[in-house]
TrEMBL record:
GO biological processes: Golgi organization; intra-Golgi vesicle-mediated transport; intracellular protein transport
Protein name: Golgi transport complex subunit 3
UniProt GO cellular component terms: cis-Golgi network; Golgi transport complex; membrane
Database matches in InterPro entries: COG3_C (IPR048685), COG_su3 (IPR007265)
PANTHER family according to UniProt: CONSERVED OLIGOMERIC GOLGI COMPLEX COMPONENT 3, CONSERVED OLIGOMERIC GOLGI COMPLEX SUBUNIT 3
Domain Conserved oligomeric Golgi complex subunit 3 C-terminal: residue ranges: 18-301
Species annotation: Perkinsus olseni (Perkinsus atlanticus)
Chain segments carrying region Disordered: 1-22
Compositional bias annotation for Acidic residues: 9-22
Length: 301
């Protein structure tokens, strides 16, 4: 009974975590928009009261901040925005980011922060040095400039998401690709190529097939897993980081294919030995070698 209660509690906790993880995207979108909206209102109020127009007349909605006139004049408002909006935003969201387990969720979260939060503010997610050039002309230029402390925190969140994604991708490569343990069905080549398509027990292959609109019938599972993880991390990681993870993933995939080829040959040899009087042993050996080679070639092409 205790085991049953423990299992029920564990399942409930797992379902709760999955539900919480599924909510992080709309939650992040809403929180970031609300915080930036309030911070922007603070910037406009500050500019309206403490800005100078081109004739030196204080105030006015068309006024600009003191940044271009007195060095360091905007530091108090920038510090205020960072402490009042930036730090609470980071504390709120980071705890949810580090609890994310799914690669898909982390990838979607990185895209959301980069495209829906930073990009509309003119913040270059790949070159943060350009953030002060946000809003090239108009009254929003100063608002965006004053928003830099808050946008910098959002950028920091993006880097945290990417770091978490890298970690989860490495874990996936280690456990799901290099550590993959095939079933008898997975090694049933070449018969698998001629069987009717059954519901896959490896959803990554199906997900990649839908994404790229290709048939994954007959694929060894680690091939689909490798292409799936590469397709997920490609859009949201820097090129050098992606190349490093891609090399690691492809190397792991090749290892599993080599091992599977040997296992397939061994299973055919075992089947042949179990059947007495099977006929021409040399011909059977040739078929075993051919099946092993064709399996490897098919997955390398």
């Amino acid at each position: 009974m205790l085991d049953s209660m423990a299992a029920t509690e564990e399942n409930d906790e797992k379902e709760g975590l999955e539900e919480e993880e599924s909510d992080i995207l709309p939650y992040t979108r809403h929180v970031c928009r609300q915080v930036l909206s309030m911070a922007r209102a603070e910037c406009r109020t500050y500019t309206a009261y403490f800005g100078d127009d081109v004739n030196g007349t204080p105030g006015g909605s068309s006024g600009t901040s003191q940044a271009g006139l007195v060095a360091g004049a905007d530091e108090p408002i920038e510090e205020y925005l960072g402490n009042c909006y930036g730090k609470p935003l980071y504390a709120f969201l980071r705890s949810k980011i580090v609890s994310c387990q799914k690669v898909e969720t982390l990838k979607n979260l990185a895209e959301l922060i980069s495209r829906e939060v930073l990009a509309p503010e003119g913040f270059d997610a790949y070159d943060p040095s350009k953030m002060k050039q946000a809003g090239a002309n108009g009254a929003d230029s100063d608002d965006n400039s004053l928003l830099v402390p808050v946008l910098s925190v959002v950028y920091r969140l993006l880097k945290d998401v990417q770091e978490r994604l890298i970690y989860r991708a490495q874990t996936y490569i280690r456990d799901d690709i290099r550590g993959f343990e095939p079933s008898q069905e997975d090694l049933k080549y070449p018969l698998r190529l001629f069987e009717d398509e059954a519901p896959s027990v490896h959803p990554e292959s199906e997900a990649y097939g839908r994404l790229m609109k290709v048939s994954t019938t007959g694929w060894y599972p680690t091939l689909g897993k490798t292409l799936f993880i590469l397709a997920e991390i490609l859009p949201v990681l820097e090129t050098t980081t992606f190349q490093s993870l891609a090399y690691e993933a492809v190397s792991a995939c090749l290892e599993t294919i080599d091992i599977a080829a040997v296992d397939i040959a061994r299973s055919h040899s075992g089947s042949k030995e179990a059947v007495e009087g099977s006929g021409d042993d040399d011909a059977d050996d040739d078929w075993v070698t051919l099946n092993e080679a064709l399996f490897t070639i098919r997955h390398l092409l």
